Each structure stands twice: as structure tokens, then as C-alpha cells.
Amino acid sequence: MTTPEANLYYALDEYQRRAHSTCKGTCKNIDYPSHELLEETVEYYDKFYQDLPEDQRNDIQLRTIHAAAMHVGQLAKARAKSVRHGEVAGVVTYTGSPEQRLEKAYELGDQLWGIAEAAHQLGFTLSQIALLNNEKLAKRKQEDKIEGDGDHR
Fold it and tell me: Which of 53, 94, 138, 146 is surrounded by the fewest CB atoms within 10 Å?
């Protein structure tokens, strides 16, 4: 008997399978998705920040966080691009212990929580976000535009 939980896990696994099918050689290198994750987080934050009313964007704490995030995002983007273009020697494979891998899994879960809550606040479900992303990636793959910059390539 299929439970709602089993359907949820299948949907997440299917999203992951489809997303992974768009990977090129860079996906063999944990360095790339780690820096890509950071870069995309900063890109989301920048869009969030830019949509704030001006009086809120002028808050010194938010301005400082935004400036720091943009700097970190540029560094992460440069690193991901270097890995993507083969400028980083060798493949970085994660060799942590099972306990260290579990700690990373917990952190990814925390990021998933943040994505779920942000999606909720924007009026989307995670299923809608996953579908939109799979469609975008499939189109990029078909047009051979997986690698590159910009939302609308």
C-alpha cells in the first residue's frame, strides 16, 4: 500500500533523478554543487533584497548583509565557474566519515526547510518549485545551455 509519505519521497527522488540527468561532468566534483548552492542562495537573497521597500533596504543591518552576501556570491560563482571550466585540478570527492556525511545531510535538510518556507511565503508548493526547475533545466539541456550564466539563457 502506498502512503502519502512514500509518494512524497518518490516525488523528491524523481525530482533529484531528473535534476541529476542535466548534470555534466562537473557533477562528479562535490566542489561544484557546493559552490553553486551558495551562489544560488545569494542570488535568491539579492532578489529578495531588491524587492524590499526602499526604507527597509536602507536598514544598515540589511545593507551590510546584502553587501557581504554579494561578495561571497561573487567568490562562489568564480569558484564554480573555475570548476566548470576545468581550471581546478582534479576532482574533489567527499571522503568524510559516515557521521560527517550525516552532518552535511542535516545542513542540506536545513536548507530544504528554508526553501520550503520561502516557497510558502511566495505562494508556491515545493512540488511546483520542483516542477518549474525540472522544466527550466530540461529546456536548457535541450538547447545545450546548461552551463552559463543568467536566469533566462
Answer: 53
